[in-house]
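Quick illustration for those who missed Monday's session on complexes.
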Amino acid sequence: MKQNIDWANLGFGYIKTPYRFVANFKNGEWEKGSLIEDDTVKISECAGVLQYAQTCFEGLKAYTTEDNRIVCFRPNLNAQRMADSCKRLEMPVFPEEEFINAVVDTIKANADFVPPYGFGATLYIRPYMFGSNPVIGVKPAEEYQFRIFTTPVGPYFKGGIKPLTIRVPDFDRAAPHGTGHIKAGLNYAMSLHAIVDAHNKGYDENMYLDPATRTKVEETGGANFIFITKDNVVVTPKSSSILPSVTRRSLLYVAKHYLGLETQEREVLFEEVKEFKECALCGTAAVLSPVGKIVNHDIQILLPSGMERMGEVTKQLYDTLLGIQLGKINAPEGWLKEII
Ligand code: PLP
Ligand code: COI
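Prediction with 2-OXO-4-methylpentanoic acid bound:
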């Protein structure tokens, strides 16, 4: 029985669902793992994650389609990215096939919490892993826990798809050759001051520039950028220190193969941002959130698409991607993993 939740008014928050997947890594191997009901974690006070932040995570969504199936979007790409994160953080990879099976099992077990079709809500799935045994010298843990929980969510930004105002902060997100390209918890810990400061000053998000030269656009704390040129070319920043967004990779495919638009993945100078006609943030949580205004100290850029609605091309990209995710438009081979 579907839960009695006000699906239409969900924000992006945590609502406890009944089941979570847990697997432990001990003595050099992963145990099989299972679904449990206990939503708490008991670990040593000296656990690697608590002392040296040895943790990484993923985020993906499950959707109820128009014809009432439950599907999940491209979990294989999250499995791959989590493997990359683990390798960079000296953590054991949870096998990709098993990652996908565990995601499927966890969604199935919590199916009553997958928002019904038509409310603009989804089930957010959060796989994560952390070092669990005592670590006091700086070194990787020897024991780990991999978990997946789910929570029904609505829009990440309050106000749904109203254009955002963002600013270029004086803080950097990821060092060159650092961990910007993986989903390490530490990347988010160090972004907290910048986002609180941005909110205090009336901005919705931060536009981080490359720390080495501070001339190139990187990403926000939780989403990649796409820009639309006056000739309708879809441009997205290329950098080795941004997270390879599943949404961004999917949108570029949609732009090219569904909408017939030219796409470019290349370095984007902040200097050229004023030439674009549309800008948006893309990510699992952000979906495709339009940006109306960008402030870099005394420079103010007002995107021609304005502060009232999504730009025209952004809207086409949004409708097509969401149409694919909701089963209204044919998906490319392998994009939708059937759950039920
Ligand atoms: N960039 C950062 C820093 C993120 O945290 C996220 C969210 O996962 C993204 C980009 C978007 O990635 P994806 O589309 O895979 O969710
Ligand atoms: C996501 O989009 O899945 C994210 O992880 C972004 C944010 C909630 C951290």
